[in-house]
Amino acid sequence: MSVTTEIKMTLQTLRRFTVLALFGVALSTPALADDAPKWSLAVHGGAGVLERGELTPEKDKAFRAGLDAALEAGAKVLKAGGSSLDAVEAAVRVLEDNPLFNAGKGAVFTAEGRNELDAAIMDGATLKAGAVAGVTRTRNPISLARAVMEKSPHVLLAREGADQFSKEKGLEQAPPEYFYTEERWKQLLAWRKDHQAMLDPTHLFGTVGAVALDQAGHVAAATSTGGMTGKRWGRIGDSPIIGAGTYARDGDCAVSATGSGEYFIRESAARQVCDRIAWKGETVQQAADGTMASITKIGGDGGLIAIDGQGRAAFGMNDLGMYRGAISSAAPTPRTAIYADEPSPR
Length: 346
Ligand code: GLY
Prior knowledge:
Bound molecules: glycine
Number of domains: 1
Number of strands: 12
Structural class: alpha+beta
């Protein structure tokens, strides 16, 4: 570490300490509590207007099984002492491969009938991040986002350039028909008829994401999405925007959001959660709720998942539901919830 970096970090620590001391709150990076989990993971599969009874029992079961599978994939990495970065990538890949969720295989269609995928990943230990927007050929966009982070000097690559980078770096390619699902196509046809922004109320915002704390105390976040049915003009949402839909910073938190992306961008939602913890001394749940309140205030909706430096998971939403789940060393069986009035797993 250079002397300049060291001085900068010391000044940052002093500034944070002063602010927190003034407000009489605890530092945001306390020593691990005795009962804190050694590792922890939370996932989401999108938020929306989910009335109880709208999902058939079979669909309810299938969504929960999808979340369970993602939790198990990430937990396997964390249990074995792997990194939070590997865990969130593994969890999101499972959700991307599941046609029920709006990411990868289950992505929604643009107005022109294409699938344009966005994804981002962030490493809380180094503040390194990678993201892609509007990609069309990569089976698992989250792995492409990671390749941008690790194999390019950039943070965000878009459209044809990102597709080309994907091929050059040897990521698994998929033909356009791989992303076709009948349900999403029907949603597009209905959208074209009525020009409604969204038609399936149970899938208003079907982004997927994961946040994790590993045994070394590092956090990471990952988000992947097909965006919105009928999107046009190269529209990009919050998911691949670092600080909006995705953010991670060791000691504070890791966040992945889902919802009306434009509002999450305007509120710097993911970064806002971490800053509330760092600068205001809020708990991760207070920070998640406070951030969702700021989204509500400007007319946005959706939800977010967050995990703090102690592995405490928090879920915030202003919709009737969010597909969500958690698992940790303290509670090592996957637990899921869908409806807003269903207790969130901790
Ligand atoms: N939150 C996903 C999007 O707006 O694209």
